[in-house]
Structure formats: structure tokens, C-alpha cells
Specification:
Blueprint lengths: L2 E3 L3 E5 L3 E6 L4 E6 L18 H9 L3 E3 L4 H13 L4 E6 L24 H15 L5 E6 L8 H18 L2 E7 L7 H9 L2 E9 L2 H7 L9 H14 L6 E8 L4 H8 L11 E6 L18 H9 L3 E2 L17 E4 L4 E3 L11 E5 L5 E3 L1 H12 L5 H4 L4 H4 L4 H7 L7 H4 L1 H5 L5
Parallel strand pairs: 6-7, 6-13, 7-8, 8-9, 9-10, 10-11, 11-12
Antiparallel strand pairs: 1-5, 2-3, 3-4, 13-14, 14-15, 15-16
Helix pairs in contact: 3-4, 8-9, 10-13
Length: about 425
């Protein structure tokens, strides 16, 4: 069998070591700082490798069969996932209201008319009765606004869904993106009993910054409340299929400040918490200088690992953006519009249909095609096709492509570093 080096091998230099990473398999091997890895550019060197090293490189995907075409495999995998008819994911946004007053909130400029949460869930049930039976699995993502503002409606719907799924032979899971302030043990136990497998809570930079930026409507701070609830979730959320993510929004902060703030979390539960670091960016309503940059996340990820936390990394999801969706995924807005993006809910390019009062769906096929084209164009874009980060990035934000006519490249720290850093030991 003739062999070659993978086209997605990447060498990443750190202060005291270097890493060979493969963005296709997400494998990583650590080497000494001065170790010469130039041989991976020459397929002829494969025959000169030590047998043990060679086999390890093959097992982890750094060396592959010469006949394999990883790019075509990636394209096929993307298309298969995009048009997968077995799973439906619905992000529920019954309200854009929130009990926090974060100045950078990307939803502030958007309204969806007068909200009617009761009617929202009634129509959702009718839609569910029509559509869910066609799928093997349904995933419900509770989003907002703050989803726990209207907890009783979510509770009622999930009780109904539990019975409906059993009677119609499909499975379901639940995720929740929440600010965490309204969570308590009773609510958490209910969600755990109704198949929740992901919870995300956000901390704003550090304690001082958080208590200035992420306040309640009345101006009161929220940091200590969130630390208490983060520990509550981490003690209850311990099964292998349960993922607890604490997102750290970086905004004019430092590694030391974030470290000191995370030290407030009980060290005994930190390994159950997956940290995700994101840099706050400017929006229509928020335009401030930020000393934190998206290509400078390594020190934060390293610090989180040193404190005993896990590092969140998206597995091989074949999706271009955590907020933008594929073929069988959408967000249901308060006015019952169906949207493809959670970051710009009011943008017309994202809205591709609406659920009528009787649960039927009206679709705009042209917008659906445009959205797919904006995703799939990465596989014909020369820069993307030749980029070693393509399996991790998949061309970046599709809405950016629609709005600007070009792709937005994401940094290595943003899309690839979390995929291997948690497994590296210096």
C-alpha cells in the first residue's frame, strides 16, 4: 500500500513545545520545541520513519493511503450531514426578553412583534404533531432571550413531548443556553429527567468585569449567584452524555483576572465543566474597544486546563458556525418565523419560513437554496480548498458570505486550538 501525508497536517509552535495537529481527525502529538517536523512535507520520508512512529502516524491520520481524497471525503460528509433526514433540531426562542441587561447583547436591536408565549407553545405542539413523527430523533434547544423566564411553558411542553415521543416511537434530547440566574435544583432535576444533555452558562470575563457588564435589570450584580448555580449543575451533570459548558466572554480582561475569578469554583467539580472562550465583538448597539483578540486565546485555554477544567471542543460536527445551522436545524422566533442564525435574528437572509397557526409550514425555497450555497461555496472557494483549517472552519459564517460576497476566515485559536489543547500534557 502506497502512503502519503495528510493534506490537513498542521504544525503549531508554542512557547516550550510544538504540536503536530490534524484538523481532519482532530489528532495531536506533542514534540520538543526544536524537533524538526519538516519531513511531513515530503512523502518520500515515510519509508524512513521508525516502524512504531509510522504506525502511530497512520493510526492518528497523519499518514494515509495514497488513494484517499480527504477533500472529497470532507465534502461528502458535509453534504450527508446537511441533508440528514433522521434528526431534526429546533432552537426555541419564545421570547427575546431577558432579566439581564448586557450592553453587548446581539438581540437588543431586534423585535419580533408582540410576544405571545402561550400561543407560541400551542402552535409548536401542532407543528410537533405534524413533523416530529418523520424523524428518528428530535433535539430541542431552549434559547432566548432567557428561556427560564417562561419555565412553566417549557416544562409543560417537555412533559407533552415526553409522552408524544414514546407514543410515536422517536427519541428526543434537550439543550439549554441560559444566563443561569434563574436555575435551581428543582428545575435542573426536571430537565435531567427530560433528557437534557447540554447546558451552557456564561461568565463575563472576570468577577469585576462581570458585575459591571452582566447585571440584572435593576443593576444588581450576578457573579456570585452564577458561581453557586454553576457548581449546582456541575455536581448533578456528570453522565458521559451530559455536557456542561461555561462560556467565558473576554472583554478587556487579563489571564490573571480570569484565573482569580474561576478560582471561586470548587476545585472538586471543575473537571465536569467545559470552558469555552469567546471574544466579545462589536454589534449594532455595542461599539467599544476590546484588548482581547480572537487569535490570542491560547493563554486562556492553557490557564483553564491548569486549574483543572475541561476545555470545550466541538467534535467533528461538519458545521461552519456554532450559531448558524445546517439543513435540518432552525431557530423558531417569537413570531413563529424560522431562522437559520441565532446571532442576527432580524436579518432577512436568515428567515426562510414561518409556522402557521395550524402548525403547517410556509417555506421560502429561494432563501433555503441561498443559505445552502453560502455554506457549500467553501468547497469551490480556492482559498478554502487549499486551507489546512477547512475541516475545522468549513468556510466560516455563511451569513457573512451572503452579506459581503466573501468568506470570513477564522483564526487557528478560534477553531482548532480547543480541539487538541485539552489533551496535551507538557
Amino acid at each position: 500500500m502506497k502512503l502519503k501525508y495528510s493534506r490537513y497536517n498542521i504544525i503549531k509552535d508554542h512557547d516550550n513545545y510544538r504540536v503536530l495537529y490534524n484538523s481532519y481527525t482532530k489528532s495531536a502529538i506533542i514534540f520538543e520545541k526544536d524537533y524538526d517536523l519538516s519531513f511531513i512535507e515530503d512523502d518520500k520520508s515515510i519509508d524512513t520513519l521508525d516502524t512504531e512512529v509510522k504506525n502511530e502516524f497512520i493510526n492518528q491520520g497523519f499518514i494515509i493511503d495514497q488513494e484517499r481524497n480527504e477533500f472529497d471525503e470532507l465534502k461528502y460528509g458535509f453534504l450527508k450531514k446537511y441533508f440528514d433526514k433522521s434528526v431534526l433540531t429546533v432552537g426555541l426562542i419564545p421570547t427575546l426578553q431577558c432579566n439581564f441587561n448586557c450592553p453587548y447583547c446581539c438581540e437588543k436591536p431586534f423585535t419580533c412583534g408582540k410576544e405571545n408565549v402561550s400561543n407560541y407553545f400551542e402552535v409548536l405542539k401542532k407543528f410537533s404533531e405534524r413533523e416530529f413523527k418523520a424523524y428518528n430523533h428530535v433535539h430541542i434547544n431552549l434559547f432566548g432571550g432567557e428561556p427560564l423566564l417562561y419555565y412553566k411553558y417549557s416544562e409543560e411542553y417537555l412533559k407533552w413531548l415526553d409522552d408524544f415521543s414514546k407514543n410515536n416511537h422517536f427519541t428526543y434530547t434537550v439543550a439549554m443556553i441560559t444566563n443561569g440566574s434563574l436555575l435551581d435544583e428543582k428545575k435542573l432535576d426536571f430537565f435531567i429527567n427530560h433528557n437534557i444533555n447540554l447546558i451552557q452558562i456564561t461568565i463575563d470575563s472576570d468577577k469585576e468585569n462581570h458585575n459591571k457588564m452582566r447585571t440584572f435589570k435593576n443593576g444588581k450584580p450576578s457573579f456570585d449567584i452564577l458561581i453557586k448555580n454553576i457548581e449546582l449543575v456541575s455536581r448533578k451533570f456528570q453522565k458521559e452524555d451530559q455536557l456542561f459548558v461555561v462560556r467565558i466572554n473576554l472583554n478587556n480582561t487579563t489571564v490573571k483576572k480570569v484565573r482569580d475569578s474561576l478560582d471561586n469554583i470548587d476545585s472538586k467539580v471543575r473537571n465536569n465543566i467545559h470552558l469555552m472562550f469567546r471574544v466579545i465583538y462589536n454589534t449594532q448597539t455595542y461599539n467599544e474597544k476590546n484588548t482581547n483578540k480572537i487569535d490570542k486565546l491560547e493563554d486562556y485555554i492553557k490557564m483553564g486546563k491548569e486549574l483543572g477544567f475541561s476545555i470545550y471542543s466541538e467534535s467533528y460536527v461538519l458545521q461552519s458556525c456554532e450559531a448558524a445551522t445546517d439543513g435540518r436545524t432552525f431557530y423558531l422566533l417569537p413570531n413563529l418565523e424560522m431562522s437559520k442564525c441565532a446571532n442576527e435574528l432580524g436579518h432577512p437572509a436568515c428567515s426562510f419560513g414561518k409556522i402557521k397557526e395550524n402548525g403547517e409550514v410556509e417555506l421560502d425555497s429561494d432563501k433555503l437554496v441561498n443559505w445552502f450555497d453560502a455554506n457549500f461555496e467553501a468547497f469551490s472557494n480556492k482559498k478554502c480548498m487549499n486551507c489546512k483549517l477547512l475541516p475545522d472552519c468549513l468556510g466560516g459564517c455563511p451569513l457573512f458570505k451572503i452579506k459581503n460576497g466573501k468568506r470570513s476566515c477564522r483564526s487557528f485559536d478560534m477553531v482548532s486550538l480547543p480541539n487538541y489543547y485539552g489533551d496535551l500534557d507538557e
